[in-house]
Amino acid sequence: MSTRMLPLLPGGPITLASRYEYDGRPILxxxxxxxxxxxxxxSKVRRVTYEFETVDCAVCGGVEFEQLSEKDRYGLRMxxxxxxxxxxxxxxxxxxxxxxxxxxxxxxxxxxxxEEVPTDDFFQTQRRRxxxxxxYLVEQGALPKQPRDSFVLEVGCGAGGILExxxxxxxxxxxxxxxxxxxxxxVERHGLDLSAGTMADLELDRAPDxxxxxxxxxxxxxxxRELGHVREIIDPSGALYVATPGVKYLEHSYETxxxxxxxxxxxxxxxxxxxxxxxxASGFEMLAGDETIKAVFKRSPVDSARLxxxxxxxxxxxxxxxxxxxxxxYLRRIEKSRRGAAAMVRKSTRAAKRAAVGTLKKTRLHDVxxxxxxxxxx
Length: 378
Fold this sequence. Notes:
- This protein has two domains: 2-113, no CATH class; 120-325, 3-Layer(aba) Sandwich (Rossmann fold).
- 40% of the residues lie in helices and 17% in strands.
- The model is unreliable at 1-8 and 372-378 (pLDDT under 50).
- It has 13 helices and 14 strands.
- The chain is α/β, with parallel strands linked by helices.
- Helix 6 (180-190) links the parallel strand 8 and strand 9 (194-196).
C-alpha cells in the first residue's frame, strides 16, 4: 500500500462512457445541506486535509485495473476500477483511514442524508429495516423466531434503529459506529448500548450470535482483515448478515444507472460473486444470498491460524471465482440500454412536438400560438 497526497487517477480510458469522466458536476439534485457538505469535502481534498492511497486488490492481490469512472454521483473526484483478475470493483486510489474517520464524523450524514442532525424519521426508517433483516434471518434459519436473549452486534449502526427492533424481539444488542451525533441520539433518546469506534475498538463479554453489516461492508478499507476478526469473535454457530448495494441489481435500482450507485464513501462495489470471494478470503461461506445484495454467512472450516497470522496473504491464497468478464459485460449492457432508452425519449419528444404543431395547424391556431414562443412580441 502506498499513500499519495492527492487522489490521482490511473489515467486509462473510461470503459463505459464519457459521462463517467470527472467534471465536478453532480447528477443528483442536492439540497443546501448536501451542497455545503460536498463543498467541504472538495475543500479538504484541495487543501490535502484528506489524503489518498493506492492499494492492491483486497481479494486477489491484483495490481492491474480497468478504469470505470472518475467521479461519483455527487460530482466528487472518485477513481472506480475493476480488478482484471478477480473482477472486484473498487475505489482506487481512495482516502486513507484517518481521512475517512474525519469524513464520517464531519460530512458523511449531511451529504448522504441531507440533514444536519438525526431525526425520528431516520430512526424509524432504520427500525423498519431491522424488521426486514430479522425476518430474513429467521427465514434462513440463522435466528429463532423467539431469540431469547440472543446477542446481536451491529457494526455501522448509525442511530441504532435496526438494533431497536431486535431488542424488541428479546435480543441483547450492541452497536458501534463513527458518527458520534447519531450514536448520541440512539443512546439518549432510546437507551441503546452504542459506542463510537471501529470493530477493533470493541470489548465484548460474550460471543455474538449474529453480527450485522447493513450497508457497511462497501465502506471498509481492509475488509478481509476486519471480517476475519468477526470470524474470531462470533459464536461458532453464529451468523453474519451482510447487505450492500448490488451492482448486478441495477435494472431494479438507482434508475438503472451505475453512476447513481457510485458514492465517495464506498470503497468497494459488490456483486454477489465478488462478495462471496471476499467473505471466502475472510473465512466464511454463504448460506443464502441474492443480487440485491443481502446474504447470510457462517464460519467455514478454514485454518483459523492461517487467517489470524497473515490475513492479507490468506486472501491472496484463497480460491476465487473471477467475475471480471461477467460484470463488465453486465455494465456495458446496462449502459447501452440506458443510452437506448434516452434516445427513445428524445425521439418520442420530437414526435409529440411535431404532432402538436400539426394539430395546431389543422385547427388554425398555429399562427395564434406561435408569437408566444418568444419569436415575436406584437
